[in-house]
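Aim 2 progress update. The chain analyzed this quarter is reproduced below.
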Amino acid sequence: MGKSDDDKAKDIPGARVPAAAARPTSDDRAIFDTFNIFFYIAVFCIIGLPIWWVTTTTSRSSLPFDEIDAFSTYTQEKGQLRKHHVPNSEVSVVEPSQKWKTFWVLPPTTAVDIVFTLVNPTPDRMTVSWDIERGLRKHLDPKLARLSPLANFTVSSQILRYLDAGIVTKAGTGTIEFREAAKIINSVESRLGSFSSNNHVLNFIVYVPPPDQQPLRLVDSDQNLVPTNAFITPRWGGVMIYSPDPPGGDASASATTTPRQSVTVDVQKIAEVFLTQFFVHLGLLDSDQRSGQIDLAKDLDTLIKKRTQMNVDDSISTLKSLASLLGQMGNIAINEVVGRNIYEAVRHINEAKEHFDAGDFSEALSHSRRAWEKSERAFYDPSLLEQLYFPDDQKFAIYVPLFLPSGLPVLMSAVKWYKSRKARLAVTGVNS
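Predicted structure tokens:
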């Protein structure tokens, strides 16, 4: 005969069989399973999903898109200002030499580094000296003091040696054209150090050719000698080939027939050339103007108007481009810093236009500079650039491995509970 559960329990020391009332029933297990499933679903949906949503939501500050769209540039409203003409007074200038290329003025900027560089390609055969500090204090510093409302100018100088420009002169002529002279820029550009500054840099180079290439003259496309022996590169700077005259020539440059040549650069001579090029870069001179005089007291007012228009127009263009970009890419985060810069740029643009219309051009220029600076900071903010390289397909590559292991067990538990619930209801219906 088979033993009952109580008899089996007696055979096993310490074993106890729970009473029938203490044993869990199928209803108790169903309630426990239901609670367990809904607990995990609640944790996943009420705690997990909100935390993920808050920590991954792209924050976008409200921006004045309507006000930016309503902006119109000065070019659209009034067209360009009159062309500048040189009156007869104050500062002597020399004719810009290069006629075959269109000159462009400096782009809107708040700081400009002016670097003067003396290039001695053969220091073993030639000694070159220049009193650049005295020359700059005399010829350049007074002009920069008057031009300080336009930008913050910083001036420096340097000497570069042992540079092979690779210039090849025309046989028997001792002349080179602009295309050949451009090799000077290619040879020195890597050693100028312009990349170490975030400001716009204007480079003015004095190139003293080796003794075996002297005198070296620059000619235009029509083979006419360039009086200044210099050329200009838009928005980059200019180059002057300082070629000493042979003995008995110009006394400003001393050249000897000894094995080691000695050259003293006439700072006043190069200052006149570079001042002309500097005024062209600023917009005080047009590229087709000839020798004349500049009255900074009068012409600075016109230049301030031009720079104000340039700053405002460039700021509006930057803001419109940024607004279009942010409107097309909804996943780009717009933090408070970007939003504040945009709002301040809009405010300074409005104030610049108000002061410009009121005739207060100095204050208009000040606001236009700040508007340009704020718009550039907003456009090139690192937080915007980071989002540009985060497309939607990368989000799926990140979120699928994250949610699949955690969401699949919860989903399967819910499906299992639903099936068991449906089966119990079916059994209950049959029994009833």
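The first strand starts at residue 91 and ends at 92. The mean pLDDT is 76. These observations will guide the mutagenesis experiments scheduled for the next reporting period.
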